[in-house]
Design brief:
The chain is of the alpha+beta class. It has twelve helices and 19 strands. It has two domains: about 290 residues, Aminopeptidase (3-Layer(aba) Sandwich), CATH 3.40.630.10; about 120 residues, Alpha-Beta Plaits (2-Layer Sandwich). Helix 1 runs antiparallel to helix 3, helix 6 packs antiparallel against helix 7 and helix 8 packs across helix 12. The structure holds zinc ion (2 copies).
Length: about 400
């Protein structure tokens, strides 16, 4: 019986799970893989799965290409406000132990469902292609930790090693559009946790304290100059302070403040430059505040740039153009978002191609473009309003994966 992809998608959308907690999601995937008769293993990198379709001819012993298709599975701590009939009301417990709302605000439910649909089609057409397809359902992309967890758990040894790694992400482009470029497709990124150490005391006697709240405020403002004053305007760099925590009560000056930073850059050189500047400013502001202890700067996670192989990207771009029309395939420029998909390809020493596909009603997109309000009116990934148009986005996602896989598999 054919998979009801719309139903799988809306079910996953209703039941998002936080990073490394994707157990229900993994269960849904396992059930569907079983129905399709596809061999798989669960619990790789905690909650990940990998599945394999072996379609070489047993008699001649010749091995065809091994194509890895990757989908990520996790949701985000976002309260959904899309108003969709299948909107999530799920809650979860984050790593700090807090009860938080959970939403598939990045579209990973679309990635999972599209990959299941692609596997269904590849299984049904084994008489047309030769080689091996490995499907990787990866946990915890949003922590930038899931692919490394699967690698540490031996996914590259437990399954046929890839000749190429392919993946896709749904994005606010018009439905029907595919965005892909050779070279750097997504930025490198680091998550930094900065603890500013002051001296706590009574709110009425600031002279007896070293106030980490003021230190944090000054640091946040000064960090803005890393990009605005110290980076070549032609270069790409992002310094975002996404979280700031200090204190519990108005009349207590706390002892410390914690900042969480997200840094983005296109390459390792820019990374070293920005990290040096951030560290210099954090230490100098602490010193300016008279801090007696050095701030503690910790890199929480670090993601490499997502670099598309030039030759494989050109080949895939041509395949997409043949399948969907040349005008449908665009160069979206480099995205300042980051991904951990490239670890699989880096670790295996093989090419990667990662592309974006549109999930916005083309008319809505055209109207927003005409009124110059795309940034305001088209919700992006991680927004509480992010709601990919179910169809044709889902069918397009399936077709993209099948087209891409078939391009790199051998024909019969
Ligand atoms: Zn995301
Ligand atoms: Zn994502």
């Amino acid at each position: 019986m054919a998979l009801d992809l719309d139903a799988i998608y809306t079910d996953l959308h209703r039941h998002p799970e936080l990073s490394f907690q994707e157990t229900r999601t993994a269960g849904v995937i396992a059930q569907r893989l079983t129905e399709l008769g596809i061999e798989f293993e669960e619990g790789i990198g905690r909650t990940g799965l990998a599945a394999v379709i072996r379609n070489d001819d047993a008699d001649d012993g010749e091995r065809g290409p091994v194509v890895w298709l990757r989908a990520d599975m996790d949701g985000l701590p976002v309260e959904e406000r899309t108003g969709l009939a299948y909107a999530s009301t799920a809650r979860g417990v984050d790593p700090q132990g807090l009860d938080v709302p959970v939403m598939h605000a990045c579209g990973h439910d679309m990635h999972v469902t599209a990959l299941l649909g692609a596997l269904e089609r590849l299984v049904a057409t084994t008489d047309e292609w030769r080689g091996t397809v490995v499907a990787v359902f990866q946990p915890a992309e949003e922590y930038g930790a899931g692919s490394q967890a699967m690698i540490a758990d031996g996914v590259l040894d437990r399954f046929p090693r890839p000749d190429i790694v392919l993946g896709q992400h749904v994005t606010p482009l018009p439905a029907g559009t595919i965005g892909v470029r050779p070279g750097t497709q997504m930025a490198a990124s680091d998550g930094l946790r900065v603890t500013l150490l002051g001296r706590g005391g009574h709110g009425s006697r600031p002279q007896a304290t070293i106030d980490p709240v003021v230190m944090a405020a000054a640091t946040v403002m000064r960090l803005q100059t890393v990009v605005s004053r110290e980076t070549d305007p032609r270069d790409v760099a992002v310094v975002t302070v996404g979280s700031i925590h200090a204190g519990l009560k108005n009349n207590i000056i706390p002892a410390e403040a914690v900042l969480e930073l997200s840094l983005r850059y296109p390459d390792d050189e820019a990374r070293a430059r920005v990290l040096e500047k951030v560290e210099r400013i954090v230490r100098a502001e602490a010193q300016a505040s008279g801090a007696e202890e050095e701030p503690v700067i910790k890199v929480d996670h670090s993601l490499p740039p997502t670099i598309n192989d030039e030759e494989a990207t050109a080949r895939l771009r041509a395949a997409f153009a043949r399948a969907f029309g040349d005008e449908k395939v665009v160069d979206p420029g480099m995205f300042t978002g980051s991904e951990d998909v490239s670890w699989f390809a880096r670790e295996a020493g093989v090419p990667l191609v990662f592309w974006f596909w549109g999930g916005v009603d083309p008319q809505v997109y055209a109207d927003a473009a005409a009124s110059g309000s795309i940034e305001r009116d088209i919700p992006t990934n991680h927004s509480p309003f992010f709601a990919p148009l179910l169809q044709p986005t889902l069918d397009n996602g399936v077709a993209n994966l099948v087209t891409a896989a078939r391009e790199f598999l051998a024909a019969r």
